[in-house]
Amino acid sequence: MLSFQHNQIDLHPYLLLIISLFSLYFLTKWLICKKTSKKRLPPSPPRLPVLGNLHQLRALTHRSFQSLGAKHGSLMLLYFGRKPVIIVQSADAASEILKKHDLIFADKPHSRTTRRLFYDLKDISVAPYGEYWRKLKSLCVLQLLSSKMVQSFSFIREEETALLMKKIDSCCVSCSPVNLSELFVLLTNNVVCRAAFGRKYSEEESGKKFLMLMREVVQLLSSSIGIGEFIPWLSWINRVNGFDRRVDKVAEEVDDFLELVIQEHINAVKNESGENFVDILLSIYKDNNSGGIPIDRDSIKAIILDILAGGTDTTSATLEWAMTELLRHPTVLKKLQTELRETLKDRKAITNEDLGKMQYLKAVVKETLRFHPPITLLARVAREDVTVMGHDVAAGTMILINTWAIGREPASWEEPDKFHPDRFLNSSVDFRGLDLELIPFGAGRRGCPGITFAMGSIELVLANLLHRFEWKLEEDLDTTELPGTTIHRKYPLLAVATHCNL
Ligand code: HEM
Fold first, then answer.
1. Which of 21, 256, 443, 451 could staple 98 via S-S, CB 3.0–4.6 A?
2. Looking at this predicted complex, what is its ipTM?
3. Can you tell me where the transmembrane regions are (predicted)?
4. Which of 131, 153, 441 to mutate to test the pocket of ligand 1 (most atoms within 8 A of CB)?
């Protein structure tokens, strides 16, 4: 192949071609490296060749990110496989993403799992930013989540809270512990279903099964941040270990239930019964008058799923953590009971007006959401190249904002690891998206539209639980968290209730 003739090197054409290709490859790589090294990337911990930083993450990712951030800064670059992911863990950095560059970061990342479970991104929470998403979100706010609508559902919250109190009453009589975790899921699900679909399903087999499916959806979504998603050539692992099959099965079973809800509404419209949120969605679908934005049957099912998943799980987790912290802090619990007694005098029923006056109750709820935000990570994707806190972020980069770590940032909070509701008594800091140090509901365009809806149930239920009953624990309280997209307690909250002497 290689021969010397007349003092000159004679190369075989194939060898020449191979050498040229190699030279071209190394030249391109060198140029790319040179370009990348000029970029002002955020600090990054050392990584492994194939895994990147995935091996440094534990199941409770918000906690892993916080410990890594302590060494590498509040804006840090990790690699999930080869995929760059920027982790944001300070109010200042979050403000650049959710306020200053809100439009650039208005998209959400998605995976095979989110596409499969959310009808190919036809819901609100993972839909790409654009006209379709805007149309659905404003429809949801107008027809279900506005202050006026939430006010109109107050009879539902009152009836469901009264039922909850009755169940606790019977536990009091039999001196058995109350499984508060279970009761909170039922209550929040019943309130959402009655408000959005006109009736509850939790007492029927299909509804009970659906509640279990919802838990599985949350688990699958958090497990979808796995090897196969970020290292494409290892995506076969999800096929072999049965993960993809599980996602398909859950998606089919969820679809069966949502079909049932829709069919029931189609029949009910024929019977001219009262109109609710699903009926309104169906009438838009039938008239196809959505202003050029097509809403099909899958869109309706995806929205229902969003409302059920978003409305039930997060609200019940907040109630669960609020009662957990109150039971761990008897002086806070006593102070809240004193506020209740002073507000109500000797009245039994709690009105919206009463709730409006209870500043300490509001402080307890805020502190619960600072200390235990149910959704610990907000996800975004950069739509174009942008600079954040002096660092270059390329289009397509995934961002994770750690709301849990931001709520415990020493720069914003005194004694951040203490549950101390009094910190909010003389403070204007609120969770509605303007104060970036407290963002349990997110902020900006993709912020949660369900705040008023959720607060309606949370405040009423907590006020009733503490007004009617004295509470004590049966055994030491374990506060271990269960990994998931919504963070619940690992073990159900069991407590013993006795009647208060009103
Ligand atoms: C304590 C209760 C709740 C918490 C902590 C919570 C939290 C959140 C968070 C963190 C987000 C993502 C925001 C972002 O990325 O910036 C979100 C989005 C959303 N939430 Fe909530 N949520 C709660 C209750 C509700 C309720 C009751 C509903 C409806 C009944 C609801 C419906 C939604 C929807 C539709 C979205 C998607 C918004 C979008 O992508 O534009 N949420 N929520």
1. 443
2. 0.99
3. 12-32
4. 441
